[in-house]
Write a structure and sequence with these properties.
416 residues, mainly beta, four-stranded antiparallel beta sheet, 1 helix, 32 strands, 5% helix, 34% strand
């Protein structure tokens, strides 16, 4: 009788929690494997890692756009330090840094955008300011760097700009809304980005080739697939697939806001997170939903794809964490929890960066940066002075670069 009563009480608690979370929480978890609530120290052995990555996986060789490449895989050829990181230098760029710090093609100059409204070029060695360019309003967009060194970046001033390597504006394009998503350079050299509810494709000279209008705001940076295909979600709930000429190929309604940028694996499969607490896999050819996994919190940042094909996502509260899902069926392979506040809008924003050894590096809104090795063990935790929503950047030589909401860009020395 006691067991029956206990089961009834547990069922009632679960139903009450699901009702409080709203419609997006009604689907069951794909795999109930979560880290404990004891904070970073208690979460270190849950298995976020999945062993060393395969050596033949595609890896971006430069750090010139959001998550390293147009598919947003977030893989680096560098090796992150495995011991407590040593600061090489820090620089205050005048406002919170929500965008990933990117680099020139030779990785000797770093580009940091801030909510203070400026784009700042910093020397890789020593962090000296090479130039600063005011962009008129807050900058959430990750700067994107072309092969010739041109920097493409937008701002909330409703402008998208091309900036020369010496900090001069080459051209400026007025947009219909805030140009606050990271751009990607297509194989033909065109630049794809979103502003307001529109997705744009422009030439390197700033001429608009096409524009596609969603019904509501597009918050996530478009990802680019084979044959110039463009994938982007919006707050009207669909994920859109566009042809290289801007024609709609398909759209699929995911039932909740799609605020984060999608990521594509090495076979072209599309993965995206939603405010319905889900990570969703979608067939790139016909828009069919292959699987959808409820992870118990908003998934608002750009996803990542590890070299072994696993999907990496950041999850918001009430149980904030970084998670690793199997690409085949969406089961949660492992996770790493951070100390939560109970708030639904507090958590980990985006998928982790994977280094050459399988170590994962990610920031969180507890003001910290984490490194977890390929076996899932916590290597180190570094505390900053503000939320770390910006994706980490790892240069080829192993220099780790972090932007945070305290306005600082911090460069850590490579592993000795």
């Amino acid at each position: 009788m006691v067991a029956v009563l206990a089961a009834m009480v547990l069922t009632a608690v679960i139903l009450k929690w699901q009702a409080a979370r709203g419609p997006g929480a009604r689907r069951p978890f794909a795999t109930a494997r979560f880290a404990g609530d004891g904070g970073p120290d208690a979460a270190a052995v849950v298995g976020l890692g999945a062993g060393p990555p395969p050596s033949d996986a595609a890896v971006a060789q430069r750090t010139t756009m959001l998550h390293g490449d147009a598919r947003h895989t977030h893989r680096s050829s560098g090796r992150a330090t495995t011991s407590a990181p040593a600061i090489d230098w820090t620089h205050d760029v005048g406002g919170p840094v929500e965008a990933q710090v990117t680099a020139s093609p030779d990785e000797q100059t770093l580009y940091a955008a801030s909510l203070g409204g400026a784009l700042t070029a910093l020397a890789r060695e020593g962090g000296a300011v090479r130039w600063t360019l005011a962009l008129g309003d807050r900058v959430y967009a990750t700067p994107c760097v072309g092969d010739d060194g041109t920097i493409y970046v937008g701002s909330d001033a409703k402008k998208f700009m091309a900036v020369s390597p010496d900090g001069k504006v080459k051209w400026s394009l007025d947009t219909d809304g805030d140009a606050d998503t990271g751009a990607a350079v297509a194989a033909d050299g065109s630049v794809v980005f979103a502003a307001g509810r529109a997705i744009y494709d422009v030439t390197p000279l700033g001429f608009v080739r096409w524009r596609f209008a969603a019904k509501r705001k597009v918050y996530g940076a478009p990802a680019l697939g084979a044959n110039g295909r463009v994938f982007a979600g919006s707050q009207d709930h669909p994920l859109y697939s566009l042809a290289a000429d801007g024609r709609l190929v398909w759209s699929v309604d995911l039932g909740a806001d799609v605020d984060g940028a999608p990521a594509l694996d090495d076979h072209g499969s599309v993965f995206v997170g939603t405010d319905g607490d889900e990570v969703v896999r979608i067939d790139p050819d016909d828009g069919r939903v292959v699987w959808r996994t409820n992870v118990g919190g908003y998934v608002r940042g750009t996803l990542s794809v590890a070299r072994n094909g696993d999907v990496l996502a950041g999850v918001y509260g009430p149980r904030p964490r970084a998670v690793r899902l199997l690409a085949g069926d969406g089961a949660v392979r492992g996770d790493f929890a951070i100390q939560g506040t109970g708030a639904l809008d507090f958590g980990v924003h985006g998928g982790a960066l994977e280094d050459a050894t399988g170590t994962l590096v990610f920031g969180a809104q507890d003001d910290a940066v984490y490194a977890v090795d390929a076996g899932g063990r916590l290597l180190w935790r570094f505390t900053t002075g503000g939320d770390v929503d910006a994706p980490a950047t790892l240069l080829r030589d192993g220099t780790l670069v972090i932007g945070s909401d305290d306005g600082l860009v911090t460069a850590f020395r490579p592993a000795g």
